Amino acid sequence: MSEPHRRRSMLEVVSIDGQPSEEERQAIARALEELAAKERAERTASIWLRAGRAQGRRLGMFDYHARFEAADAWRLSTRFPFGGREYPGLNGRGDAK
Q1: Distance between first and last Cα of the chain
Q2: CA atoms within 13 A on the CB side of 40
Q3: For residue 1, what pLDDT is reported?
Q4: Could you say which residues of the chain have pLDDT below 70?
């Protein structure tokens, strides 16, 4: 079976001091790719955090910094029912009985 399709790397090894073998060059390139992937994963907010922020925005809480684009905010906010209250009618006065 063939190797799954890989995305073209955005990193390019321009120069390496010394005389590394082809295997060493490939190991260096893999290490750089892993480092870049780790940094991307740490930079991206979790989907739960993004969804929570979108829900807060929908409920009128604008006192936080949204760290996602407007298109993501709209898409994530549609995952929840639209309205001002999340649990209408359950006011903590025995209405749920």
Answers
A1: 60
A2: 7
A3: 42
A4: 1-11, 13, 44-45, 62-97
Specify the amino acid at residue 41: A
Cα dihedral sign for 63, 65, 70, 75? negative
Would the CA dihedral through 22, 24, 30, 33 be positive or negative?
A: negative
* Residue 69, both tokens: 């684009």
Cα 22 from chain centroid (whole Å): 34
The token duo for 51 is 């969804």
In angstroms, the CA 93 to CA 40 distance is: 47
d(CA 97, CA 85): 19
Instruction: Please report the beta strands in 3-86, taking only residues with DSSP state E, as ranges in sequence order.
Output: none
**57-90 exposure pattern, b = at least 16 Cβ within 10 A, e = fewer:** bbeeeeeeeeeeeeebbeebbeeeeeeeeeeeee
